Amino acid sequence: MLSYATPSAFALFLPLIAVAVWMIYNSRKRPTVQFSSLDFAKSLKPTLRARLRWLPAALMLASLACAIVALARPQKADTKVKKNVEGIDIMLTLDISDSMVIEDMPPYENRIEAAKKIVSEFVESRPNDRIGLVVFMGEAFTRVPLTLDHALLLQSLKELKISRNIKMGTAIGSGLATAVGRLRDSKAKSRVIVFATDGENNSGTIDPETALEIAKGYGMKIYAIGIGKDGDAQLPVESVDAFGRKVKRYQPIHSTINDDLLGRFASETGGTYRRATDSNTLRKVFKDIDSLEKTKIDVSSYTKYAELFPPYLTAAVWLAIAALFLGQTVFRRVP
Fold first, then answer.
1. At what angle do helices 55-71 and 13-27 cross, to 10 degrees?
2. Is the pLDDT of residue 16 over 60?
3. What CATH number is given for 88-294 in this structure?
């Protein structure tokens, strides 16, 4: 990027332009000498020397112009920005049990689709953090380990579906323990688990209390989210009829969230617990978490300037020498 250290020097162009105008004006004034007749001179053509008599003055003006630019000190700025990012390691832990297909999160199809969409927005808002994904039903497994490849994580979220090939139930303890295991070796200063479920622990090989103690032992912070409303609900179940067509029917289900357990997950690790009974409050919960867990980014920059005035100064000197030389030799005027 081109800049000038002393741009005020360009004000000197004003008197230079005035001098140029004065010289042009005076060049039109010609001295007169009386002759008896000019018939002999009418057939003569101006010589090249006569045509270029303005050259020494023009060279001197160009020399002064170059000198003014040199005084303005043109510079080329080379700015470098250095970012020091202190990221946060976040393990998203998402319940994908049967109850997550309850259709009470408009405008989304069901709880799991609402969670997938809003979690994706959360991931996109944190480009400098390593984020992973653990899912659980009757058992838990890591779907995406901690990574900065958020495109991979978002694709995995998009493809996430409730599978009948996994043990049924809600293994809250196993889900939390798996997330802790993935964060255990993290060197990040802040290690966070975002734990979202819509049920109570009724499966798994690890007790939630044990998983909580492990998380506390490693200094991990848990943000717990209870998805959906308590009470009776309708669970959609798809089947295939005799003609091979998919048929959706509903069966009654009682949905209950253990607020006390999730509240202790948060309070005993320094996090927060929120209930999200619709898609709007669920989005707000993730925005709150995003605002609470800020990634530290230190930005420092320095600028190196390369001086560009020497060529202009050199040109000014040579143009002045040429003007003086030509003015005293080829274009010298004799009184």
1. 170
2. yes
3. 3.40.50.410
